Amino acid sequence: MRLENQAGRLPEPPSPIADDGDEAHFCRTCAFAGACQAVGYGKPELRELHCLVEHVGPFRAGEHVFRTGNPFRAIFAVRSGTVKTSMVDKEGREQVLGFYLPGEVIGLNAIYPEHFPCDAIALETSYFCRFSFPAMSALAARMPAVQSHLFRLLSKELGSASLLAGDHSADERMAAFLTDLGQRYAARGFSGTQFQLSMSRGDIANYLRLAAETVSRVLSRFRNQGLIEVEGRQLLIRDPASLRHVGRSLLPD
Amino acid sequence: MRLENQAGRLPEPPSPIADDGDEAHFCRTCAFAGACQAVGYGKPELRELHCLVEHVGPFRAGEHVFRTGNPFRAIFAVRSGTVKTSMVDKEGREQVLGFYLPGEVIGLNAIYPEHFPCDAIALETSYFCRFSFPAMSALAARMPAVQSHLFRLLSKELGSASLLAGDHSADERMAAFLTDLGQRYAARGFSGTQFQLSMSRGDIANYLRLAAETVSRVLSRFRNQGLIEVEGRQLLIRDPASLRHVGRSLLPD
DNA sequence: GCCGTGGCTTGATCCGGATCAAGGGCCCTG
DNA sequence: CAGGGCCCTTGATCCGGATCAAGCCACGGC
Predict the structure, then answer these.
(1) Smallest Cα distance from A251 to chain B, Å
(2) Angle at B64 between CA A249 and CA A147, to 5 degrees
(3) A135/A160: higher pLDDT
(4) How far apart are alpha carbons A151 and B150 in whole angstroms?
(5) Measured between alpha carbons, how far is residue A201 from residues A193, A217, A218 in Å?
(6) Which of A31, A40, A158, A221 would suit a FRET pair with A113, their CA atoms being 20 to 30 Å apart?
């Protein structure tokens, strides 16, 4: 069993693992699904796309998928598991940049510098599809659908990067964070209201630019207000509408 | 005269306007210079690149280059002047996302949503090169140099977006902001130590997630410490090394 | 079993920067 | 010229969240 059961009193949700051995299911939920579908399954171009993919893993919790400074050769789609990306600044302080769920893509910010500007660390046992970037670029030049898909992926990440920017209260940040996670799980076919937080309170705090104690306090408050149920890393969103309302200023529409 | 002289006691630096009527100079400093050079000046491909460019402007201070929700058709390179991009959240609060100097590109974050997710507002009289994005994509498919240039532009912006994220003191943010502005001016061939702040204190504050009063106080403190000289919007960086040191945790290398 | 460690929670205190408030300078317009 | 608006600066006060501190629990190693 890959995910340790916390023996909490909340019922276990289905494990958010796309790679259930069913290739088609993973591909449906993968970030490149759009490109593949545009090409048309079964067409020879799809085979080309799949040829440049290499399955890698498992990476155990705490292991690096790539490190700051590694030469950039490929981007990675999360096949199963969860990853955090983080930078370590000159004072040695860690800075969590993002969390990536099954179907999402990491490494795009390395294209320009040609070296990874951050570390990618598995938060639980994780598997990936590795796309050689030179091969991908070459394919993109011949397949407009792939090219525009890459543009869209990049542009999309630009949009989400500017989200955590604003100055917002701890409650707003936390509510938006949980709502966003739920939506992303839902978009990949998992439950959007009940899931495991695969990262520690410290990682959440770092990502949201809060102290770990504040994260703890806000979660407790949300629980007392009946917005969520939380026990260790098991999370149940009891009142998605209200939660979203609290975080509305950070959330799209 | 395009830029109003503030009649300050600081000597006027050369106006940061790339478009001095000298086409070649602008192109040397433009964000697409890399792509053009890769193609090779004088080659027929360069003509194609230039054919899809349309010069637009002038936009006067306060005028919109595009607005939130406008359908995305093109990206814009700043030819001269300065632009801020900003979002207005559901509570009506403005959120400054960035400032763009001559040679820089705006609109990349609109590719994915296919509509501009933010406003772009001229801070002074400004001119632009407008690149039709469909045409650009088509060209990119035929010219690998253009494609990779677009990838790099997008990826670069991803990197800078994660800069303003961290939790840093007002001094660090301000020092990093001024250093970064200087570097960007220097990269386009202007003075990196003496220039005009084309945005108000309020815009700087909003961008750095500070109060306008704090921006004012920090600037005064920097002046008292001999780091800078500032009078209205005229800025002179007296001690670039120390300033950079204060902002080091936000700055690359 | 015992102990050490790391993640989590909760309480008490402190501080950086927001907010409130007041005043000055500049520019525009009538 | 007066009046009004905007931008900027500086001072006084306040507050949200950081920091410090203590204790709990689950887990792993010995």
Answers:
(1) 9
(2) 75
(3) A135
(4) 8
(5) 19, 11, 11
(6) A31
Query: Nearest residue of B to residue A152 by CA position?
Result: B112
Distance CA B169, CA B207 (A): 14
> Vertex A111, ends A93 and B250: CA angle to 5°?
30
User: Which is it for strands A94-100 and B74-80: parallel, antiparallel or unpaired?
Assistant: unpaired
Position of tokens 């993109």? A140
pTM over 0.85: no
Q: Which residues pair with B238 in a beta bridge?
A: none
Instruction: Give the alpha-carbon dihedral of B246, B247, B249, B253, to 10 degrees.
Output: -110
B214, pLDDT greater than 50 = yes
Torsion angle, CA of A100/A102/A107/A109, rounded to 10 degrees? -50
Q: CA B151 from chain center: how many Å?
A: 18
The answer to whether B126 and B83 have CB atoms below 8 angstroms apart is yes
Rounded CA gap, B176 and B243, in Å?
8
pLDDT of the residue at A17: 44
Distance, in Å, from the CA atom of A197 to the CA atom of A77, rounded to the nearest integer, reads 20
Check CB contact of B34 with chain A, cutoff 8 Å.
Answer: no
Å: B216 CA to D10 C1': 9
Tokens standing for residue A228: 């969520």
